[in-house]
Design goal:
By secondary structure, the chain is α/β, with parallel strands linked by helices. The protein contains six helices and eight strands; from the N terminus they run H-E-E-H-E-E-E-H-E-E-H-E-H-H. It is globular, with a radius of gyration of 18 Å.
């Protein structure tokens, strides 16, 4: 790490599997595909923690406020991991998206889903099978408890309902 070895005070926040009601992300892609196709094959051997962009923004703000306002009493510089609290694979995440979206009226029907290994979707860059991050340091240093998937996903999808 160049920044860490430079000796400067730094704050790096790593995350994974970010989704929101805007842009390009897994949630919006799955909703689009569920509307277009009656059956979907979804990778089931890669695990991570879906993280709502709004939660990530709130945590980022809290870290920066603490880093600026600590008056030098605590050294909060360093590398931290944040992701929302529930680890699952892409297949289970997709099924959760579909069920919640259907409940909210965003999907008229639930697609048939089939779990498949990642080898069925070759990528230029190989994806890790486990991208779950250890959030212990951010929880203990900043007293932040990761948000749960169900409530965060529901609120995100409710934004889509309001925009329709």
């Amino acid at each position: 790490w160049a920044i860490a070895s430079s000796g400067c005070r730094h704050l790096v926040l790593r995350t994974s599997w970010v989704y929101s009601a805007h842009g390009n992300n897994f949630v919006l892609t799955m909703l689009r595909l569920a509307r277009e196709r009656p059956e979907l094959s979804i990778v089931s051997d890669q695990t991570g923690c879906p993280t709502w962009a709004r939660n990530l923004a709130a945590v980022s703000r809290r870290l920066l406020e603490r880093a600026r306002g600590d008056g030098g009493t605590h050294d909060v510089a360093g590398l931290y991991h944040y992701c929302d609290g529930d680890a699952l694979n892409w297949y289970d995440f997709a099924r959760t998206i579909f069920a919640t979206a259907h409940e909210l009226g965003l999907l008229e029907r639930l697609p048939v889903t089939r779990p498949v290994p990642s080898s069925e979707f070759p990528q230029i860059a190989e994806r890790p099978l486990n991208s779950v991050l250890d959030t212990t340091a951010v929880r203990e240093t900043f007293d932040i408890e990761p948000a749960g998937l169900q409530a965060s996903l529901r609120t995100c999808l409710e934004q889509l309902v309001q925009n329709d």
